[in-house]
Q: What sequence folds into this?
């Protein structure tokens, strides 16, 4: 962490004077006493009263949390709940001291000391004198006028005492006894502001889509008749509107109105911004000037209908976001804020809820410029601020944030943390009178026509969408351990999209709150099941849901899952933008051929790229993309279609098979080297051998129980095919010669019909099996055993590179992929993605690289799922969902996944929509697998599978 070693670090927003003009232009000047962010800090003197390093003076980086600097104790919010009335026994206070200079030329200015955020009660002294009332509340900008307390042109002393817990129990209830990490300290910057005595303190802008502009301009210390001028400027700096008015000494606020002809409008899709320049003039001299950025847009909540932006109904594709970084907690920087906004946009989301407190201002600035609808929220996790302190904090939040066009709604607390006496406070400071909502988890708390009820399932969502309120759920599909989030999202999102009263919603949550513990050698702690709730890991590692959400929320909506037999290049498409014609996007399609299993490379072997002419399709309307297919398109493996938005960002890439698995297998299987096939037996086995490969099949079960290769040691793959959850008994065995092949077939009574093993002269071992399991099943198919600790990599042709669930099949692409073995677990770590273990969809072949060499499995039939080893979806009292037996499975059905603590019926996957239901099996299933227990060598047309000597393990 870089530390600025001087307290003379100055950032000037504008020049104090202009030597090229005949008058001085006066603006606010800012001098940082702390650093500017978590990467650029200043050391202050520090003393903590409890925990680590208690009772001794040392240095601390500011801004920061003191826990992350090695002081005090760690607390998750629930700790204080369990402490009960004794929590003050565990109270910590931090005492800060810092010396600073004040420039002599500031003597005739007003000097304000600003804290962007401090946790929690903050008592400030300047040169031994109280700066003002103790500030209570952790997430808000607060200021002190210290003009009469400082020494101009000399040294000054700042003393700050910060209490981790508040003396106001309603503050503790609202933000400290919460389900998130609780820290202490000055975690956002501290700085001085110098302004002329007569100045503009703040402004509140209301700029509508029709071009009308209004602003309340708050003035201070106007001593003489003056002029107030407002200039509106576009992004090139050209004035598009201007107005002047007289200001008298008695004026403390002035309302200015003017109109702009056909401005570019702000939406999350078209984030057009303007600047308002407010200037105080005394005669011809400009005495003070300040600038605010804004956008023209009209936000309406039409009760019984929907949320409208610029006259168009919008639906929120959103996520909840904590301010967070593993090393520094809630102390962050502009680059982190920017990256988070980009990640949210990359998921094709259009909205974010600032849970459960206002974020850093930079985050809102990027929401403005890149385009996200924002719910800015007053803290109040499940209990509310008291009215006196709550009124102060509402004012502080709105004065700071009011001019951000991205903020479309105010949220007056979360899940019962709603003080209804504060609802009318918002409009006192917000000239545009945005709607105030309650983010809640109990029915009956709808307000102002919006119901934000949390964690409703698919079926209760259908009921709520019948009315009478707009349903915009502020939390749903809890993403602990990468369960929830995208799992079930497609079904629930379709309800919101199609329903008149559907307002969309906000997934819980953006990223795992994993803190780097300075008391445990830098281990990352997510407080077990409490905080690993993200779509991304702590360092923004992309989990599987990230890409599935990207597809589900794509504004280019394509339903086609497979190419029809008579595919002619036409693809039905729906424009799910709200304000953008589809013709503003660009499309390309690729025809691709994939690498073969025996190639050294992975991915695409050959491709041709073609542009697509995009028709005009209005927002929310449907149309057709016409691909002009090359004459030889059927000779390729797959068709890929990529959509790019008007800003040059990829929306999504879809993939469809052209060649089926039967054709792919036909191309892989031929091997010119052959030997005569041998079929022998001993007391326990049928023994099949060809081309140096020997397979031992158990007489009593029909299972592969042992393997040998003339080039290596035995291979441990076997004990299969076990029919998962099936009941059956052996009925009979037959052996036969079929051409050059030798066949052993086992017939069964029960749910397994038969197992047929065929050894071919080239060494391919063919397995045919069929089964019938009627009714609902979480999974269906067969399994084999193989020691997990022998696996190095798996390479496959199929969807990837991420694993899937039955109710989260989106977000994966057809390709050849290769994953190295890892034991990563979403929410627990080491957050290495994609996970090696899991269910993988639409697999044609898979090649395992093991400590015993390589072996290849190929299927002739389509729609096969591959299961790799033991893993779980959600961590809880027991791991969930239950796994099929065995280590490696070849499946025709896989389970869905529920949400957090899925032991309860309300969180089971089936409640979140049809995709979460178990698969209904009602007919016989047959599948063919080919195995080659060796590695490829040589050219395709003359390939022999051998086990290289260097891969042989010896004792």
A:
């Amino acid at each position: 962490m870089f530390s600025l070693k001087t307290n003379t670090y100055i950032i000037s927003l504008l020049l104090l004077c202009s030597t090229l003009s005949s008058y001085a232009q006066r603006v606010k000047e800012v001098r940082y006493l702390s650093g500017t962010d978590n990467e650029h800090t200043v050391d202050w003197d520090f003393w903590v009263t409890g925990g680590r390093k208690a009772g001794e003076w040392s240095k601390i980086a500011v801004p920061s949390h003191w826990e992350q600097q090695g002081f005090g104790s760690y607390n998750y919010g629930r700790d204080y709940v369990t402490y009960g009335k004794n929590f003050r026994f565990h109270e910590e206070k931090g005492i800060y001291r810092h010396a600073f200079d004040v420039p002599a030329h500031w003597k005739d200015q007003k000097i304000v000391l600003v804290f962007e955020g401090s946790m929690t009660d903050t008592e400030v002294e300047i040169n031994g004198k109280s700066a003002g009332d103790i500030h209570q509340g952790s997430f808000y900008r607060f200021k002190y006028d210290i003009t009469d307390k400082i020494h101009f042109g000399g040294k000054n002393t700042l003393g700050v005492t910060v209490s981790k817990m508040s003396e106001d129990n309603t503050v503790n209830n609202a933000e400290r006894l919460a389900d998130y990490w609780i820290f202490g300290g000055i975690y956002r910057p501290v700085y001085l502001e110098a302004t002329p005595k007569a100045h503009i303190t703040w402004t509140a802008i209301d700029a509508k889509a029709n071009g009308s502009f209004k602003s309340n301009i708050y003035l201070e210390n106007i001593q003489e008749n003056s002029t107030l001028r407002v200039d509106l400027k576009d992004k090139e700096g050209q004035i598009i509107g201007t107005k002047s008015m007289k200001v008298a000494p008695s004026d403390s606020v002035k309302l200015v109105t003017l109109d702009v002809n056909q401005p570019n409008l702000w939406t999350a899709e078209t984030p057009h911004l303007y600047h308002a320049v407010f200037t105080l003039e005394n005669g011809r001299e400009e005495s003070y000037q300040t600038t605010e950025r804004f956008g023209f847009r009209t936000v309406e909540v039409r009760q019984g209908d929907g949320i409208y932006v610029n006259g168009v109904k919008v639906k929120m594709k959103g996520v909840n976001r904590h301010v967070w970084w593993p090393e520094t907690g809630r102390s962050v920087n502009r680059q982190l804020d920017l990256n988070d906004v980009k990640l949210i946009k990359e998921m094709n989301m259009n909205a974010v809820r600032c849970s459960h407190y206002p974020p850093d201002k930079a985050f809102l600035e990027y929401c403005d410029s890149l385009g996200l609808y924002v719910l800015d929220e007053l803290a109040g996790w499940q209990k509310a601020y008291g009215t006196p302190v709550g009124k102060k904090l509402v004012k502080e939040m709105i004065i700071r944030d009011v001019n951000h066009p991205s903020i479309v709604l105010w949220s007056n607390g979360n899940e019962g943390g709603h003080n209804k006496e504060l609802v009318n406070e918002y409009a006192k400071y917000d000239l545009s009178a945005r709607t105030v909502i309650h983010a809640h988890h109990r029915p009956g708390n709808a307000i102002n026509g919006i119901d934000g009820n949390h964690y409703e399932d698919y079926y209760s969502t259908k009921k709520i969408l019948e009315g009478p309120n707009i349903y915009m759920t502020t939390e749903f599909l809890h993403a602990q351990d990468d369960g929830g989030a995208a799992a079930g999202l497609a079904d629930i999102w379709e309800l919101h999209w199609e329903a008149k009263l559907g307002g969309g919603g906000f997934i819980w949550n953006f990223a795992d709150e994993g803190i780097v513990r300075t008391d445990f050698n830098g281990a990352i702690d997510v407080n077990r099941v409490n905080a690993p709730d993200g779509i991304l890991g702590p360092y923004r590692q992309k989990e599987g849901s990230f890409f599935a959400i990207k597809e589900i929320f794509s504004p280019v909506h394509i339903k086609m899952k497979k190419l029809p037999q008579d595919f002619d290049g036409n693809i039905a498409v729906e424009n799910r933008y709200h304000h953008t014609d589809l013709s503003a996007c660009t499309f390309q399609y690729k025809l691709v051929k994939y690498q073969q299993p025996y190639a050294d490379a992975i991915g695409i072997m050959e491709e041709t790229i073609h542009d697509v002419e995009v028709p005009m399709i209005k927002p929310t309307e449907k149309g057709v993309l016409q691909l002009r297919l090359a004459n030889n398109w059927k000779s390729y493996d797959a068709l890929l279609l990529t959509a790019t938005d008007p800003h040059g960002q990829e929306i999504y890439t879809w993939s469809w098979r052209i060649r089926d698995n039967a054709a792919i297998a036909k191309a892989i299987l031929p091997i010119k080297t052959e030997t005569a096939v041998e079929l022998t037996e001993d007391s326990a086995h049928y023994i099949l051998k060809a081309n140096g490969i020997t397979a031992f099949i158990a007489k009593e079960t029909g299972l592969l129980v042992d393997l040998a290769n003339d080039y290596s040691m035995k291979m441990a793959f076997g004990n299969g095919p076990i029919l998962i959850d099936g009941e059956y008994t052996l009925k009979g065995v037959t052996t036969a010669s079929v051409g050059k092949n030798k066949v052993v077939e086992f017939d069964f009574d029960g749910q397994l019909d038969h197992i047929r093993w065929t050894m071919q002269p080239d060494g391919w071992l063919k397995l045919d099996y069929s089964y019938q399991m009627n009714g609902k099943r979480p999974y269906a198919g067969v399994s084999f055993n193989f020691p997990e600790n022998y696996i190095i990599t798996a390479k496959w042709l199929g969807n990837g590179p991420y694993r899937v669930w039955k109710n989260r099949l989106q977000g994966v692409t057809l390709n050849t992929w290769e994953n190295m073995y890892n034991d990563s677990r979403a929410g627990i770590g080491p957050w290495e993605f994609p996970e090696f273990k899991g269910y993988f969809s639409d697999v044609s072949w898979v090649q395992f690289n093991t400590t015993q060499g390589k072996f290849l499995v190929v299927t002739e039939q389509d729609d096969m799922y591959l299961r790799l080893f033991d893993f779980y979806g959600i961590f809880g009292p027991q791991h969930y969902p239950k796994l099929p037996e065995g280590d490696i499975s070849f499946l025709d059905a896989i389970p869905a996944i529920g949400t957090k603590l899925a032991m309860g019926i309300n969180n089971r996957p089936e409640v979140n929509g049809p995709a979460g239901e178990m698969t209904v099996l009602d007919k016989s299933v047959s599948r063919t697998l080919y195995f080659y227990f060796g590695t490829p060598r040589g050219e395709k047309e003359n390939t022999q599978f051998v086990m290289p000597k260097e891969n042989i393990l010896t004792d």
